[in-house]
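Objective 1.3, modelling of assemblies. Example input:
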Amino acid sequence: MNDQSIKPDTPKAIAQLLFIAAAIGAGIAIAYLLLSSFIVPRIGFPGDLNRILKLDQRIAIAQANASDAKRIAIVSNSVGVEGIEADYIQKQLPPGYATENQSSNGLDLLSGRLYIGRLLQSNPNTLVWILRPEVMGKISPINPELASAMRFGNFQINADWINPNPNPDPNPNPNPNHQPYLDQATRDRFNTTDIKNQASLRTIPLRHLNEQVRTRTRRGILPAKPLELNAPYQIDANLTGPKLQRHLDDMVFILQSRTENDNRDGIAFIEATLLQILQTSTTPILVIAPTHPGNDEIFGPMETLFAQQLQHIAGLHNITLINLTKTLTAQEFADAIHPNRNGAKKLSTLLGQKLKNHLPETNRENN
Amino acid sequence: MLFQTPEFLVLFLVVLGWLLWNRNARQQQIFLLLTSYIFYGWWDARFVLLIVLSTLIDYTAALGIDNHKISATKRTKMATIMGAATLGLLLPNWPALQTQGLQAFLDNPLVTLNSENIAAIALGLSFSVIGPIAYGLYFKLTDQGRKKAFLITSIVANLGMLAFFKYFNFFIDSIDAVVAQSGMQWAAPVLKVTLPVGISFYTFQTLSYTIDAYRGDIKPERSLLKVALFVAYFPQLVAGPILRPQQLFPTLDKPWTVTGKSMRSGINLALVGLFKKVLIADNVAPMVNTIFANPDGQSSIVIMLGAALFAVQIYCDFSGYTDIARGISRVFGVEIPLNFNFPYFSTSIIDFWRKWHISLSTWLRDYLYIPLGGSRKGPSFTYINLMLTMLLGGLWHGASWNFVIWGGYQGILLCLNRALQTIAPKGTILHKALHTKPGTLFRWAFTTYLWLLGWLIFRVTDFNDLAYCMKKFILFDANLSLGGIGLGRGSPVTALLAVALFCMLHLIGFVSKRWDERLNSTPWPIRALIYATLGILFFYGWPSQSSAFIYFQF
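Predicted structure (tokens):
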């Protein structure tokens, strides 16, 4: 039984193990030092985590700045980030209101609902939600990294639509139609407590690289100003020729793929989010953003349909809907989606003019 | 317990310490068996009982085949263990106990006939009561009759457990669908069956033991401990490589020995596997999931990209697991055979199956294809046997029709490949043309195209989505839009960087030397630099959440 044909070599084996462990450990230590002494001080925390944390700060700043003024929070994705300047809206409004652009790049319906949940905690008087027609269809799954980031941004990750009652009967979830949009992996991201460092540290260099690549491909975009409440981005350049055409085609593809098979998940989700807002004292106002005239042939009928569907919801819940489609010319777009500087000025002024007739005098009574 | 978790590191170090300290073979084996059961029971303690049942059945069957009657005392002990094991299946599962405490018992009362309980009662009746009666009767049969009876018992018991735990709902759902189509009324039984991790792997491994004993290829082992360790040896327990008795039993006759060389070589191999799994596969997975979550509407280029990314993901996931398993075992002084041999450089489908999941394809060849007749009964039967083998091989992967289709697809490709070999044997112009440099490149590209299409069938489970993906893969739509893959966010960049890194390293490994071998012969200062680089990569690239190996579900 105790055949010792191969001689055990315990000291050498242990030495090998320690050597390998020490070298890997040294690598990890170098990576950590690089991160703490170079990457973070020089680059900061770019990417979703930084943005989300900054959004949280931005809400707090807006709340502090507003003092007694009634706050009007504009919420949208990059269309609002790049296409809305709060100052132009503010100029159209009567005294006593403070407009803040709380839009955030990449804010889709799922992450938007989380964000709106956080925004409602700061108790704005009015929440102006700017939407484009492609959101009415299939809902994109939430980016897991974004879910991780939101975990640390004081967002409403414990809302019942994210973490429904684990025992569905006899008390069914009040928002059952939302559950399918969050898969288990995303929910896990929300519920994991020890991922802050992992979520941010491991992706910092790659996210930085990603942002660099993105910025280079669309020259003219200045660095984001995440704490800026008026105009977080400024676009100076316009896409033209084949680049613009490719972007326009991309938008058509996105619209068609999301609304295929008459999918209207987005509309149902928007309604559920509005119901959530109506549970608070904040007044929601819906706005349909203009789309590039170059895509009118495809987008035109969809815009009409989108307006009809939103009008239906707005009518049901007594919500104001402002339709700004067909308000910008092709020259007022920087690309297929985002208004340029002139477009932003025009769009913001128009929105301000329309808004002034619909703003509530006081906060709504809680329902 | 996943390889890439801290708890596994602790388990590994404890086992390593024991093997370094203890030079007694039997004590080493007892310790290895216990740690193997802990490793497996980490998912759900009840799963261990299935392995115990399987072990006892095959141990008894193999000895019975060898006309060795187990003593009454030992049989009583084994029957008691079987009874305890079957009763144990009635317990609530381990995760439930961890999260719910005593409530888990209240939620899983012993008297409720849930799926696990029904399975336990069936197994208990079969093995604890009928088994001992049958055992006596078998020895009254003729020599050949006894051998067959024990073999059939082993096959039925093992495949029965596999069929119940893996395929019960699949069969019921399929019958239900057929009945519903015909308009008849039928109330399908509803059972919640938990799939034990890696059941297909250890079932095949343990089956090879009794079949080899029946064929006379091995002398059945008298030591229950050794058989138990063969079935449950933890590095390769849940995702292979599927071991043959001849590969492990000879190593159990002496103590396992850890040396400086085995430590270095084993850890190098395990690190290569860890690199593939956590840095490549797990970083590619989110993008693959994004593409195939809603493939409907995606352009051809996105579907092709998705298929290629999945090919990288599944290879790095599965071969990564194998490398870690082989590396750990090598540290312990035991060599586990190669399971992947650069399959993506294959120049034909036959070649691919010689290099992909080698332990499964050789198992299917030795225990299914050849017993069916192989190529001995003429071309028609050869093709039928190939199809049957690959269909069952497909079903082995999972209880889903897409795996059956995938198996059928691979079977058709193998038949066509074989037919081509017949049409263009060595010496013909076509054969010569196909074996020139451009011809070889063409064969590689075409083979790659075919297995990529196969991975689509494997990955996309919804039939409508699959039909769409296949259409887009075969008929290129010339739409170069990448709008649907989330470019501009972090994960695609990470995934594409990971794939580029993998392709570069994999190609270098293929044309020169495997990376673990290269590391073994590298001078220590350079090795230290490589390890440190790995440390840096792990720090930045380790996924924020560990994900299970894809093949664990099989």
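Chain A has 13 helices and five strands.
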